[in-house]
Amino acid sequence: MADRIVDGRRRSDNLILDTALRDFYGAADEMHLDEGLISILSYPERRVDVSVPVEMEDGHVKVFKGYRVQHSTALGPSKGGIRYSADVTGADCEGLAMLMTWKCSLGGIPYGGGKGGICCDPTALTMREKERMSRTFGARIAPIIGRWNDVPAPDMYTGGQEMVWIMDTICKMVGHFEPAMLTGKPVDYWGAKGRTEATGRGLATCGLELMKLKGLDPSKMKIAVQGFGNVGSYTALLLKQAGATIVAISDTTGTYYNPNGINVEKAFEYLDRDAKKRGRKLSGFEKEGCEKLDSVNDALFVDCDFLFPCAVQGVINENSANKVKAKYVIEGANSPTTPEGEIILNDAGKIVVPDFLANAGGVIGSYFEWAQNLQGFSWTEEDYNKRLVSLMAENFNKVWAYAMDKKVTMRRSAYIAAIKRVSDIVALRGVYL
Ligand code: NAD
User: Fold this and answer.
1) Residue of the nearest CA to atom 1 in ligand 1?
2) CATH 3.40.50.10860 residue spans of the chain
3) Which of 123, 250, 312 has the most ligand 1 atoms within 8 A of CB, as the residue to mutate?
């Protein structure tokens, strides 16, 4: 797919990259950003395409395409996941790396944005094929990643195991141990205690800060959570522990509704039952005093004060946004609200806390893992959680204050704050690097 230049601005035929560029240009124009800075930040600093030959189980060799993109290292090493997906492209990684630049900047952490991936069907690979693929990919991107230049992490269809394969390969190549070269490692192997709950903890913090600002008592608040995976389940649990009533949760098996309150701890037991056989699912949870609603999307439309969409992108759109009853929508998933959906929510006077502010607990938690690895010293889980909550609350309040002051949406305010931090440092450092 080719790039085009329209009115001096970069346009891509790739949906993810083009959306990222349009959002960037919209905010950049509103803040009257210098055209030179706009041009610099329209492109990644570096993109490396690699081939990844893998000897398959039947002995034949298959070559996969791999990518690593560093959009910006203005604030520090680039940071972002590595995904295994059948349709990932280099242009996708460019767009996603740009979003990571804004997320890290807004998160108040010393990172730029990166992203990478291998174009493959991970579900069709055996463990040994996946291991060979991860190790070869690691070796091929080794010259550009590292604790002070680019720190990858898990993303779609990758996790602690893939990170360990990549790290182990590069450690053997360079002949010394390098735990801070990537994050998302297993807790027992240089990972961080607290990471599992980090994204949910960040979302719950945004919810509680918003309640504080609006003078709302958490114990009187009704909450609905769409998606009961890593993000949604801990968001629901932590808000319940803060006194709120969780009225609906959902996953691919359906929506479970109880206006008097869902037993969230019990729902965790359902996830863990037979998890190996049937995946971590809520099926059967209606037996716990809930009504099972017809559709997985019904969680979006129940009567509640706060809605946390924590499942997939695009669920609040031009067809569904007018059915949302919650006054406050806090985005846990990436891009759960389409631009058309957001206009409807805004017109109805609802407040949307944007994804790259609300779900930044994950990347902030990765920063904490990196910091511990550099120190060679593990923090307690309590330390980790305290620092996470304090940083998330600070970021939330900064975006809120700007939005109120300038009378713009929280998404626009978040973009402006994020772009300003990066562009100020690019201007300070100068063009020549
Ligand atoms: P996950 O796979 O653990 O959970 C996803 C959940 O959503 C599952 O319960 C699944 O059954 C459910 N689901 C899928 N489609 C649904 C639908 N249409 N309606 C209702 N439920 C549905 O994933 P996760 O790690 O919790 O991530 C959720 C979202 O948050 C993704 O968009 C992800 O990119 C984003 N995110 C995750 C993190 C993180 O740290 N895990 C950080 C930032 C953003």
Assistant:
1) 229
2) 44-179
3) 312
CA 243 to chain centre: 26
Residue 433 three-state SS: coil
Distance of alpha carbon 425 from alpha carbon 100, whole angstroms: 16
What residue ranges line ligand 1, CB within 6 angstroms?
199, 226-232, 250-252, 296-297, 310-312, 332-334, 359, 362
List, by residue range, all CATH 3.40.50.720 domains of the chain: 198-358
CA–chain centroid gap for 154, Å, is 11
The CATH number that domain 44-179 falls under is 3.40.50.10860
pLDDT in tens, 194-244: 999 999 999 999 999 999 999 999 999 999 999 999 999 999 999 999 999
Residue among 99, 102, 225, 230 to mutate when testing ligand 1 (max atoms within 8 A of CB): 230
Report the CATH number of the 198-358 domain: 3.40.50.720
Whether the per-residue pLDDT at 278 is higher than 80: the answer is no
Q: Is the pLDDT of residue 324 over 80?
A: yes
* C-beta of residue 199 within 8 angstroms of C-beta of residue 362: yes
